[in-house]
Specification:
CATH architecture: Up-down Bundle
Order of helices and strands: HHHHHH
Oligomer: single chain
CATH class: Mainly Alpha
Strand content: under 5%
Radius of gyration: 19 Å
Helix content: 55-70%
Shape: globular
CATH topology: Four Helix Bundle (Hemerythrin (Met), subunit A)
Structural class: mainly alpha
Largest sheet: none
Number of helices: 6
Number of strands: 0
């Protein structure tokens, strides 16, 4: 193995790590900023109010997932045990997709305003948001966040991050969204049901009979 080849591989690792860090830190920076603004000017709901079972499931998925991303960001070698041999072009697709999610995240958070919540529970002064991306999709934050997670997995070419991102997406679709929509239905009644009939859950609705 030539020194030139080794240097090229090392250079590629650092390039993808740099994009990984940019997407990761910007996404979490946006999330932290808007959530902090919401807490300062509105009601805050503690995660513990979701119940011990829901909190346990969140921790069970979130802790290893976030730790794996932090580990890769600090030193990709720490996550080499779950590296997968993805073609370089596919990793660049991940870079493009990851960067594309950042303005979308800003749009979603800006549209939510003080309605941003740490849980699936609704706030006392919760408003029904139907503008911005919410005019087409009821849960665009989950959609964009999931896309960002999967993009990060492609950038890192890491099987564990990819699998955990997919598991979290499935968990959101099957468990979080139904609970959140039940809360919103109680809160807004027929207004939310009418809104639900004309929008998609995680993707824009293409057929009137489709839910997702």
């Amino acid at each position: 193995m030539s020194d030139d080849f080794v240097n090229e591989v090392s250079h590629n690792v650092e390039i993808f790590r740099l994009f990984f860090v940019v997407v990761l830190l910007t996404a979490f920076g946006l999330s932290g900023y808007f959530r902090r603004q919401a807490r300062r000017s509105g009601e805050s709901i503690a995660r513990s109010r979701e119940g011990a079972g829901n909190l346990f499931l969140r921790l069970l998925l979130a802790v290893p997932f976030y730790l794996s991303m932090l580990a890769y960001a600090v030193n990709p070698g720490w996550m080499a045990w779950s590296a997968v041999a993805l073609p370089t072009w596919l990793r660049w697709v991940g870079v493009i997709a990851g960067l594309a999610t950042l303005p979308l995240l800003y749009w979603v958070f800006r549209s939510l305003g003080n309605n941003i919540s740490e849980t699936f529970l609704t706030k006392e002064k919760h408003g029904l948001v139907t503008h911005g991306p919410y005019q087409w999709v009821r849960h665009p934050l989950y959609t964009v966040a999931s896309a960002a997670f999967l993009a990060l997995g492609l950038i890192a070419a890491n099987g564990f991050i990819l699998i955990m991102g997919a598991v979290i997406l499935v968990g959101i679709a099957l468990f979080v969204v139904p609970k959140e929509e039940a809360q919103l239905t109680v809160k807004f009644g027929e207004s939310y049901l009418e809104y639900r009939r004309r929008t998609g859950g995680l993707m824009p609705r293409l057929k009137k009979s489709g839910q997702w």
